[in-house]
Amino acid sequence: MLSSLQSALKIGDLRQRIVFTLLMFLVFRIGAHVPVPGIDIQALKELIERGTLLGFFDVISGGAFKNFTVFAMGIMPYINASIIMQLLTVVIPALERLAKEGEEGRKRIVQYTRYGTVILGFIQAVGMSFFLGNQGILVNPSLGSYLLIAISLTAGTAFLMWLGELITEKGIGNGISLIIFAGIVSRLPAGIYNIVNNLRTGQVGILSVLFFLLMAIVVIAGVVAIQEGHRRIPVQYAKRVVGRRVYGGQSTHIPLKVNQAGVIPVIFAMSILLFPQTVASWFPNSSFWQGVSRFLDFKSIPYMIIYSLLIIFFTYFYTAVTFNPQDVADNMKKYGGFIPGLRPGKPTAEYIDRILNRITMAGALFLAFIAILPNIVSATTGLNIYFGGTSLLIVVGVALETMKQIESHLLVRHYQGFIR
């Protein structure tokens, strides 16, 4: 990996892309310190330290939520809008036809996603402003204050969306994923400082810290194994004679990833669980609000069970949406390919679907375990942490994907061909 980075810095175009990405990270970190007016920051920090889901948002936003800056909501509304648009593309025939129209259709869908981001961001910002008002976080709770907070947060999310698209176009890697990556990594120094401080004051023991570090190493190794793991299905192509030439006859394979859906099921499940909390926050001091808050508490057993089941469900659902075994079988049949021992067509599709269901179960269970890992670590070590399995999953996944893109750029520029 280090050799790839050294080689990348020697290539002018690739070096410019990396420098541009780092400069955009600097802009992101500067914006993460521009506060929204009318917020009692100290009261908000105390609310986050109680162990709610707000702590996870603070990690994702790189500390912007704890300081309640214009980037407090992060890029989550864009991710939710992208997932919803991708699902609607499969359900709505008009959007499906638009997706198959090539570059112009893709631009239209991207534009719809932007509109959806602004709408979802404004709804979430309004719900968040009312929630903070009910918790006594606002200095002067009034309609003007609610509107100012909602507009500021929505504008911050829209700016991050533009920044991410700019990184994708002129930088290296996926811009949206890299912004989330930068936000999580920026919290590492503060997390390390808290652990050292707790160790110095005697709040936690050295064995608990060592156990935490050992578990972190095991989780990172597991995330890499799951992200890169895949099942190879052998495929044989029959020989075809066209004129005087013979085509086909080679052997290849279909790589089925263990984690076909990536981190999307975790994000989508969290968004679903946040929706009733957002609605309930509009009715403070009611039995509905108290029941939802107690039932969906971040550390409660019902929350962890529902969270895990939603992750498993969305892992299967997203895999079924993005990967169609019947289409794969039809394409193999069209070009003369077959799996040894199986007839082309329906038997091949059923075989691929059966293998996919088995490996998807392993990936879904791993995602569910990673998502609830912070609760397990907090209960066993006494460390109140939010940089848990989900954050590690995002960081490791983005890092692997970015390094693959850098290596692909290097491969194109260092390829010498058959003639030197």
TrEMBL record:
Cellular localization per UniProt: Cell membrane; Membrane
Cross-referenced Gene3D superfamilies: SecY subunit domain
Membrane topology field: Multi-pass membrane protein
UniProt KW keywords: Cell membrane, Membrane, Protein transport, Translocation, Transmembrane, Transmembrane helix, Transport
Primary residence: membrane
CC per GO annotation: plasma membrane
Pfam families in the record: SecY
GO terms for biological process, alphabetical: intracellular protein transmembrane transport; protein targeting; protein transport by the Sec complex
Bilayer-crossing regions: 18-36, 75-95, 115-137, 143-163, 175-196, 202-226, 263-283, 303-323, 355-377, 383-400
Source taxon at top rank: Bacteria
PROSITE patterns: SECY_1, SECY_2
Subunit comment: Component of the Sec protein translocase complex. Heterotrimer consisting of SecY, SecE and SecG subunits. The heterotrimers can form oligomers, although 1 heterotrimer is thought to be able to translocate proteins. Interacts with the ribosome. Interacts with SecDF, and other proteins may be involved. Interacts with SecA.
HAMAP family: SecY
Similarity remark: Belongs to the SecY/SEC61-alpha family.
Function: The central subunit of the protein translocation channel SecYEG. Consists of two halves formed by TMs 1-5 and 6-10. These two domains form a lateral gate at the front which open onto the bilayer between TMs 2 and 7, and are clamped together by SecE at the back. The channel is closed by both a pore ring composed of hydrophobic SecY resides and a short helix (helix 2A) on the extracellular side of the membrane which forms a plug. The plug probably moves laterally to allow the channel to open. The ring and the pore may move independently.
Protein's recorded name: Protein translocase subunit SecY
Species of origin: Calderihabitans maritimus
Gene: secY
